[in-house]
């Protein structure tokens, strides 16, 4: 059974249980399998040799997730070719694609953890009660070592965009 962490996060003030480990700076980034679309999968290895900013959101169709993804899409344009910005949620891939088209998102790669929840469990962000992912940010260097982590305590709050971008810029 996967490790459960209770009392570390809330949704609108109500405690939630996160499944998986709490990763820290210096940890090797766990591999994962997520979906690019309903058939094709992606893993950490698909982005080998690149700095990875992973923006984790519960659902793109909510206000904070929308704003978070739009902000990182804007930032991605300035970070160079050695950086990839991934947004991971459990939204179905066709919903992600529809949302990106409507929002004009063209620099961020959206990936779905709907099928196996391997990202959520591996990174300690799968919410047991509702099977969505807890808002969080991971910056992983080109050697797949975690260089920045932000687990939000309250799901409805924004991450620290400036700190996440600064962590990426230190690596390029």
Automatic annotation (TrEMBL):
Pfam families: Redoxin. Residues 23-172 form the Thioredoxin domain. The active site is at residue 65. Homodimer. InterPro entries: Redoxin (IPR013740), Thioredoxin-like_sf (IPR036249), Thioredoxin_domain (IPR013766), TPX (IPR002065), Tpx_CS (IPR018219), Tpx_Peroxidase_subfamily (IPR050455). It is an enzyme of class 1 (oxidoreductase). It catalyses: a hydroperoxide + [thioredoxin]-dithiol = an alcohol + [thioredoxin]-disulfide + H2O. Thiol-specific peroxidase that catalyzes the reduction of hydrogen peroxide and organic hydroperoxides to water and alcohols, respectively. Plays a role in cell protection against oxidative stress by detoxifying peroxides. Keywords: Antioxidant, Disulfide bond, Oxidoreductase, Peroxidase, Redox-active center. Its EC number is 1.11.1.24. SUPFAM superfamilies: Thioredoxin-like. It comes from the Bacteria. It comes from Paenibacillus radicis. Belongs to the peroxiredoxin family. Tpx subfamily. One of its GO terms (molecular function) is peroxidase activity. This is Thiol peroxidase.
